[in-house]
Design brief:
Strand content: 25-35%
Distance between the termini: 21 Å
Strand order of the largest sheet: 4-3-2-1-5
Largest sheet: 5 strands, mixed
Number of strands: 5
Number of helices: 1
């Protein structure tokens, strides 16, 4: 099953509950938008891969984020209070 919306915890200890990030793949715009709620950083980067697993999407976000290959966006996803937070350590 393809993942286009993912909330995950990297396990990095930026806060007591880790680092919580929400990532949304916008298939029309061909970008991933993300919001790091623990560090209050948001951004987007081009992405053209489809049929992603949760791990694929999380890895793409962390590679772009850790290497600064993203731009700030006002369209970053807001926190979903009903989201299941996946533990994905990369």
């Amino acid at each position: 099953m393809s993942t286009t919306d993912l909330t995950f915890n990297t396990g990095r200890l930026y806060q007591s509950d880790g680092q919580i990030i929400r990532a949304v793949f916008d298939e029309q715009a061909r970008v991933v938008r993300f919001n790091d709620f623990s560090r209050m950083v948001s951004g987007e980067f081009p992405y053209q891969r489809y049929n992603n697993t949760e791990f694929d999407l999380a890895r793409a976000v962390m590679v772009a984020y850790d290497h600064g290959i993203y731009t700030y966006t006002r369209e970053a996803p807001r926190r979903d209070p009903n989201a299941v937070i996946r533990s994905i350590r990369l």
